[in-house]
Every structure is written in structure tokens, then in C-alpha cells.
Design goal:
single chain; mainly alpha; three-stranded antiparallel sheet
Length: about 400
Amino acid sequence: MPSLNIMSESTLTNKTAVDQAANLMNKFAQRTGLTSNAHPVRYLWTDAFAVCNFLALAKAVGDGKYLDLAGRLVTQVHETLGRHREDDSRTGWISGLSDEQGRIHPTSGGLRIGKPHPERGSDEPFDESLEWDSDGQYFHYLTRWMQALDAVARETGEPHYATWAAQLAGSAGKAFVYRGQTGELKMYWKMSIDLSRPLVLSTGPHDPLDGYITVLQLRTTFKEMNKSDSKSSPGNELKLDEVLGAFGEMIRGRDWTTADPLGLGVLLINAVRLMQLNYRGDVADPELLKAVLRSVQTGLIYWVDSGDLAQPALHRLAFRELGLAIGLGNLRIMRDAVRADNGIEFELNVLGKFSRLENDILSFWADTSNHSSPAWNEHKDINEVMLASALLIHSFSVSLLL
């Protein structure tokens, strides 16, 4: 059975790029307290990419230490973001479980974002500028972490990672999804740390799609492993089919077009995951795959025309552009693996006209002279981790499984 996550050497292969990625990830691990005595600094989105980077490095260089780092990072994220903040009056696991049960089921209450400031109190008015830096839970961060856990489960063959991902899907689906006054299913953008109340009422534009594809992926992994973890969720069965049905209802007839480069990159990653699911036997809706690819086409035209690539580093956000580069790298893998009868050759050929953007973005941000701006240093962790991701997928065609 073909697979999209197999490392294959290409004409772009070069040891220097992998060395750069390894150097970035080693520095990140030390700086954020994973391999040093520094106080752990965990941020869920960044750490999800970091886990997959470590898995990719383990393949690229054949060094088992990176597989170990992936596992250690998972543990530290759960011990940090699965618990209440140090400046919170509440203590322990955000799920409310005992210390022992919390370690067994670390994702059953979701995971904090890891923002620098405490969440907004129930009696405090909404302030968009303050909300950006305040803690809570984001659904699209939780799906990134579910996918990282799923990748570790498949790489190690250890089913408890898949169980943790499924428990997180169940908790997030129950908390973020609700029915509106007219009966339609909706999602909150941001929830409180304990998932008891919404902090931002609007729906993330791609959250239902992320949820649908992620749960498909988790369900397929469970089937492949042919068993569930004995450490089942306390008082909550793994109802992936039920969660999948809710997301399936929300994605019908949706337009996924965006001109945001990070959003476009995530859409491309989702397209690769849909194709991967087809190869793994859990056939996804072919029309959904086409719709995603066509939305990317439209969005790329808008973004290229915006002229953002001509701006200096001071006025650009590296991690958003690198997200697009990662997506385009995944697209290259998808085009190499595409079957003649899958009906998306036209969409892939159209998108192929934008392939040069991967080189343009990566060459700009791999140039260290562009790392001195405040915009780079303010987001140093996420920038460096996503740069490492882009380097790995660009040079060795390693699918990062996100």
C-alpha cells in the first residue's frame, strides 16, 4: 500500500538543510526546558510541530535520540498544559482528575494554549487586544496536538498515544460544538481553560474541517492498531464516530477560501491527509478533497497579488509564511504519489504553478539576516520550529503528518 509519509531522497536533498533543522530543534529543546534545567516553556501549536519535527529527524538522521525527544516532549506538554497555570488559584489537572488518574488520562480535559497571561475572568469584559495573549483553549491547537499524538502512535506502535488523541477529540468535540438557536451546529473559537465557558463566540473558519479530517485520521489509526488502549477514558467512551458525524454535518457545502498564508498551508496539509486516508483504506469524500484544493487555488491568487512577499522582514510574520511553505512541500509529496484515477490531477497541476513559492519563502527565512527584526524575535520559538519543519520537508520530502 502506498504511503505519503515515507522519506524519499530527491534532487533537493542536502545534508546542510537537515543539519540546520537539527540545530534549530536542539536549541529549541534546550531553550524551552526540554533538555535543560530551564523552566519549561510550552506552547501547544509550536510543540505539536516540534513533536513531528523530532519524528522526522529520527528518520532523516537515524538517531534514536530524536524519537526519545518526541516522547519526552509529549510528556512535558501534558504535565504543563494539562494542568492549571502556576499563577492560577486552581491547582492540579484541568480535567479535575486526581494526580494519578490525570497522568493516565492527561488529555481528558483538553490542553491549555500556553499563552503568557491568565484567561479572562467570567466577570471581565471582552477585549480583543488582551484576548490574543490570554490563556484558554483553541480548537485548532487541539487538533494539531491530536495529529501529533497520532503520528507518535504510528511511529512507535504504542496505542496509548492514539487513546490520548481520541480522548482529546471527544472532550473537545463535546465542549466546542453546540447547536445554535435555529438548530444548526456551530463551534466556539476559544474556550476557558476548564472548558466550562466560551471566551470567543465566533467560529474558526477551518475548525470544522480540521475536526472532520483529524477524527477520520484517529479512527483509521485505531482500526490499524486493531485494539484500543486498556486505559480507557474515565466515564467517557471513545465515540469517534459520533464526533465525526457532528463535524461532517458542519462541513457540508462550505467554502474554505482564505488569503491567509498559514490558513492556506493548513488547507494543503489537510488535502495531503485526505489523500493519505485514501491510501490507508479510510476513503474520504473525493469531492471534499477537490473543494479544498480549489479553495487553495483561489486563496493563493489573492495572496500572491497582495504583494506581501515583496515586503521586508520587519513587516512579515515568518511562521504564517512558513506554514504555507510546509503545505506546499506536502503538495509536492502529494503530486508525486497521486494515482492516475483519483480525479484530482487537474487541481494539482494548477497548484503546481505556485510551487516556486516554497523556495521563495524558505530561502528568505533561512537567511539569518532576516532574523534580527522584532517580528522574528517576538515569535522566535514558533518561527524556528516551523522553519525546521519547512527545511525537513523541502530537502527530504518527509511528510510531517500534520
